[in-house]
Design goal:
The protein is mostly helical. The protein has 2 domains: about 20-60, no CATH class; about 85-285 and about 340-575, Growth Hormone, Chain: A, CATH 1.20.1250.20. It has helices at about 5-15, 25-30, 65-125, 135-160, 165-185, 190-205, 205-215, 220-245, 250-255, 260-265, 275-280, 285-295, 300-330, 335-340, 345-365, 370-380, 390-410, 415-445, 455-475, 480-485, 490-545, 555-560, 575, and strands at about 40-45, 50-55. Strands 1-2 form a two-stranded antiparallel sheet. It is globular.
Length: about 575
Amino acid sequence: MSPASMAQLESLREEQSQPIVTRHEENEKDGNQTDDCDNNGDCSITVFPHIIPYQINNANCSNSSVIQTLSGSHKEDIHKSQLHKKSARKAFISQCMVNAVVMTIVTASGMPIGYSAILLPQLQSPNSTLPTDDSWASWIASVHSTAAPMGSILAGPMMDRLGRRTTLQLSLIPIIAGWTFMSLAPNHIVLVIGRLLAGFAVGMIPGPSQVLISEISEPKLRGLFSSMTSASYALGILLVYAAGRSLHWRVVAGVGTVLPILAIFTLFFLPESPVWLVNKDRPKEAKKCLLLLRGGNELKVQNELHTLVGHSKMVKDKEMAAKLGIEDTTLCAPVPHWWEIMTQPQVFKPFFIILTFCLLQILSGSYVTIFYGVTLISSASHTSSHEYDCLTIAVMTALVRFIVSIITSMCLLKLGRRKIGICSGLGTTLACLSLVIFLYSKSFATGADALPNDRDTKIIAGLIMIYVATNTFGIFSLPVMMIGEVLPSSVRGSVSGILLMVINLMIFSTTKLYPSIAGILGPIGVFTVFTTVAIITTIYIYLFLPETRDRPLTQIEEYFAVGKNYIWGNRDRDLMKRRRHSIM
């Protein structure tokens, strides 16, 4: 071999020994270097599809094909990035619009809750057009709460059979009828019927609204939208309080029909839950809904739809195998279907975790402050409730809940459910404990210090408002919000209906028993109980509450279905380390 040939061969070996460096790798080495050539005048570029390295000198970068390839690739990357941002923006706007309609419905359901606070004072005033004694007033106030559990249990199977959107539409019919009955009521019986219908609707609305929000929202936005229901609920109470300060109770009832009438027609133009459509073997309709909710991003929709269809098929196959196993191996009567559902680990685990959380929430005084806020302040300060503007205090309480609920929604974008719940539990504990210490110290006061005064009353009212704020931040907001996240999609409607029915019964029982219990324990005893329950709630959240932030619904369902995932500290960490950007 000639010396020239040897030199050429050696040159070729040296050229092939150079590493292949992509533009991305070059930029990682030098963050300020953005063009194709380095400071020495050389740049290493991988040109696809042939994966051939080219050593290009700055002075000789005249190869037009390479420049065109780089320029075209760069433009294509920019174009794809712009399309992705555009579809993400459209998806966010679409989800905001759908959720805004749902929030309108939740706001409408909050208005009957606060209506009795402005109705009864007007009915029992000397110039009332419908004079009312204490017996009728008790019926008017309480019948609303007795009807809510019936609405909750009915909404469950309706969600699974008719769909989330259709159930919401049907739930608006009794609330419109209820407000109409109340605005035109010629006597107490018609007024009570109106309150009964409104209470029935209020029981129906939380389940489908929470489930629909969870199923149409992307994981990263689900916490924001789901928690806004608490703010909407408080807003409804605020609206009826504000209207009741200057308007007659019949006019307020007429105004109450506006939001549900608007919502019932707007719902016709909104998409149904893609999860429900897939479970009903309607994937084409589910795809159309997903295209609208995901800003037209075809690839994202295809991946999400593939995951939903695969998960639905897996669940149905398991159910079929279980049924065949029961029929083949037993001679006794088949187990009732509802019992089969409730004994599945992916059902009973989240059911009892959320139910226990709700029980602790109620016992911590979350709903007592809604119904007995003025009584709490007057009993703690040893003053008469007649010395206060009851409606003003009720407005302040609702306003605090509304503002804190919005803050919670913003925090859920960055913080997990567990962190917010623990912070809320600690804050509630400190607020209640401070109030107990203050009241206990006042019990030893003598002379003029022992007498009721404005300073003590303001301190007590301020501490109670702090308690309301810290309690609303997590303990009040999280349980119902998480119902739409943790329950399995195939029975999310039915099981959430049962769960909400039990919750409504617990709320009704607690609020009915509170006056008797408060008479026995006294203010110090009541807030000591609230303090103790807040401590237990904080420990419970730390031990048992799962973290669902940014996690797909299918992954949350699998978390409960496999292993012994009861205590969060002993969870299946391999399962929870899956990529968070998996599709629903």
